[in-house]
Write a structure and sequence with these properties.
single chain, about 350 residues, alpha/beta, 12 strands
Length: about 350
């Protein structure tokens, strides 16, 4: 039987394994119990917000102080912070578009697996009767994946925030999430360009014409990436402008796609993403299905005890993640010659 309105909330619920408060609440009050009810579609945390009549978004959002009306409702505040930061990360993040997989780990030490087939091994040639079947060797990388802690310090006082609308406070928290997301994208690009310690930097090609990008250069990039698929291109502002100025990018269909969806797709079918994390006249082409693995140690971490006790001064919000190459040749660079 559902009993979301009678659960005793306490600080210790944040320290119960992966998933934090929401997972703990789901264990006590499963969402499956609310199918075909007015609370269907809400997770366990959202039902607690409804229990205490706390509205966190919209024109009629409550003030921060609403969380601290009771000791039980105060326990919900750190999760609100986490969710707002995560939303900001997701809205500003292109990581999901460039990583093949995400691995969540409990500790800080992690070795990924790697396979480096030769050009000959990539071909599945006919096997004669009685002959050995060609091997694909998968092994653990020699080096640990480098994990970086990224975060921000929330510097304020409860008195300064207590009467602020949650909808406005959420905007600030989402911006913190966006900062973290952009830093993680920078880490991912650094691994592509410079290697991850076990696998070398991405190889690439240089444009045929000095200081100028041509459609033929994109064809060369597509060819160099084979047998992997060129489905994603990352480019900084100046290179993005050069790409968009290519005559073939200005045809009617490309314009309709951009105007209708906001998505940029090259004539080669690769999706374009703008990032300021690449320096110089360079772009990256990759096969997002097998180029990068993201390794994350836990979830977004906030000082839950301090937040519950209204000690907002210098409260840290952070996440720990790193990146590793899966197939080293699944990403290539295209660099302009100096004019």
């Amino acid at each position: 039987m559902a009993f979301y309105d009678s659960i005793k909330l306490e600080k210790g619920m944040y320290g119960v394994g992966q998933g934090g408060l929401t997972k703990t609440l789901e264990g006590l009050d499963p969402s499956e119990n609310y199918i075909n009810t007015e609370l269907a579609g809400l997770d366990a945390y959202q039902r607690q917000l409804k229990r205490f009549n706390i509205k966190v978004n919209g024109a009629g959002s409550d003030i921060v102080e609403k969380f601290f009306k009771t000791s039980d409702s105060a326990v919900l505040f750190p999760e609100y912070i986490t969710r707002a930061v995560r939303q900001g990360m997701e809205e500003a993040n292109i990581l999901d578009q460039i990583i093949a997989t995400k691995t969540i780990i409990e500790g800080m030490d992690y070795r990924t697996i790697v396979s480096t087939p030769s050009a000959d091994e990539k071909e599945l040639k006919p096997v004669l009767e009685g002959a050995h079947i060609p091997q694909t060797i998968v092994k653990t990388q020699d080096n640990l994946v480098k994990l970086n802690k990224r975060g921000r310090m929330l510097v304020s006082s409860y008195e300064a925030l207590r009467f602020q609308r949650l909808d406005l406070f959420t905007v600030t928290l989402k911006q913190i999430g966006a900062y973290i997301a952009r830093s993680q994208v920078k880490d991912a690009i650094d691994v592509i360009l410079n290697g991850d310690g076990s696998q070398a930097a991405a190889t690439g090609i240089t444009t045929a014409t000095e200081g100028k990008l041509a459609y033929a250069d994109l064809i060369s990039l597509w060819s160099e990436l084979s047998p992997y698929e060129l489905n994603t291109i990352l480019a900084p502002t100046s290179v993005m402008a050069d790409l968009l100025n290519l005559s073939i990018m200005q045809d009617a269909q490309a314009g309709l796609n951009f105007q209708g969806t906001g998505k940029l797709v090259t004539p080669l079918g690769a999706t374009l993403f703008h990032t300021a994390s690449i320096e110089g006249n360079k772009l990256i082409g990759l096969d997002k299905t097998c180029a990068l693995e993201m390794v994350q140690a836990g979830d977004i971490v906030v000082d839950s005890d301090k937040l519950i006790d209204r000690q907002l001064e210098r409260t840290s919000i952070s996440t720990i993640a790193g990146f590793a190459k899966i197939f080293k040749d699944a990403a290539k660079t295209l660099t302009y010659k100096t004019a």
